[in-house]
Amino acid sequence: MFAAILFCGAIATVFTACSKDDDDNNTTPTPEAQKNTAKTASAWYEVNMGEDVLEVFDVEVTTISPSFGESTKKLTKTSYSFADRDCAIKDPGSLVFAMSVKVTPKAGFTPDASKTYNLGLGSDFAYYVVNEKEEPLVGHQGVGPVSFSALNVPGDKLAERVERFAESWSLALQKVEVYKTYYVLNGTRVDF
Q: Is the whole model's pTM more than 0.90, yes or no?
């Protein structure tokens, strides 16, 4: 009787070891899955402006990045650049990169009628995503520095244009969310 129990136990062990379920537990992604799966993402944030912009305007840049969180900076120099590179994408979840620029007329500023103001402002938000094989999946990658149209505005004509400049140079929030198999740019989903 004891021998029969041992024999049945041995047979059950053999059948368990040969189960088809073991064949389906392969965790190595196929080459096609690797090609369409994001591994890392990077983003660059940049603002450049004419030498007199900060005399006339307050310029604030808000950035969101996985490594550094959300930050708002009031600019004190005519150029600003920031990057968050090679952030790993985990599943489930996403990486969020975003940027906005707010330009407002400086309180109490009165133009000097005898001066010509060197103005103009350009901004760029660039991103780049690579797959498991380090190949590019998607990207809008700036080739900095960001250029802008320089404007030389006579002081006696500046007051009437200040509000229009502030409005046209401000950048609404630009946002990209990167997931393993797709990304969402300003609310629009795109699969890799």
A: no
